[in-house]
Amino acid sequence: MAPRGWPGSLLHLLLCWSVYGMVPEPKNLRLHSVMFDSVLEWDPPDFHKENLVYTVQYKTKISDVFIDLCRRIVSTKCNVSHIPAYSSSTIQVRTEFENEYSNWENVSFTPYRETRIGPPAIQVEATKPGVLNVQLIEPSFTLNDGNRSLKEFYGIAIYRILIWKKYHNTEQVQEVNTTDTFQVIRDLDPMTTYCLKAQAFIAELYKDGQWSEPICTNTTDTGLHPGLLTVTILLVLISFPFFSLIIFYIYRWIKYTFFPSYSLPQHFKEFLSKPSYGSQFLMSHSQEEEHAYNKIIVLSEESKNDASECEIQLSNAEQHLEQSQEENYKPKEDSGCISLIHT
């Protein structure tokens, strides 16, 4: 008589395994697929024997023939990226031990709908105050031994960009949705650190992609930082009196050097403006008036013994002066002796 209840069923199953050599199926099948890079994983069964191997097969919805993907492998995972991307396929796996096999465990998979979209790469550049230029590099993947872009495969991809201040994670500044891979983010605070992340979104399938890792950058300065502006104004106010005083003294020096305030007397100006008249005036007065002359004799060391000769020269100069009253003075030089007659 067979035992009743699930403990009895479990005991009966273990007895059958021990008697008939049955191999249990793999457990907990799961698929991981990112950008059509797909891997099937499972957990090994609870079995008292070692050296278990596994076989993985697939077939499409329109076919009844299973095709091997991984045959008699020791690993508990198999790459299933080569199954058709647009078709719904059935993937099955079983446990094998020597000539014994378990039942098949299967899972359905449609890569086009179920694969996860990878994150786009982000390049950020701060060119103007409060403005960031964001360049997105769309994710690519390999399919059927060829590189494909997201737009080529799905047609239209929408990119979501989140921007927030680095030290205000809960404060979302902007959310941008765009189909372009280049976007200009405006109206940001200057000299502030912002962080960005992006994801792709397939609207046709309502399918979200993975978020990229946040990247942070600083916006540029407006050139009028309040603290720097205050310091600049204070320096100008302090230095203004000093530079004003320097400029004042330079101005006075130039004025009194090149433009003196005093002027020549009026009769000097008239004389300089009419030199011929001045000469006639002096000559007319010199004829009417008698002048007293002082005799000055300058002797050099070499001509001290020639004093008498200098006296003779001086007498001749006086006679010559009387004959020519147009001259004011008449110098003579001879043998180191200089005589000067002054009127």
TrEMBL record:
Name it: Tissue factor
UniProt lineage: Eukaryota, Metazoa, Chordata, Craniata, Vertebrata
Q: Function, please?
A: Initiates blood coagulation by forming a complex with circulating factor VII or VIIa. The [TF:VIIa] complex activates factors IX or X by specific limited proteolysis. TF plays a role in normal hemostasis by initiating the cell-surface assembly and propagation of the coagulation protease cascade.
One GO CC term, this protein: plasma membrane
Region Disordered: start and end of each range? 321-343
Protein family membership: Belongs to the tissue factor family.
Q: Which compartments does it reside in?
A: Membrane
Its source organism is Anolis carolinensis (Green anole)
Residue stretches of biased makeup (Basic and acidic residues): 321-335
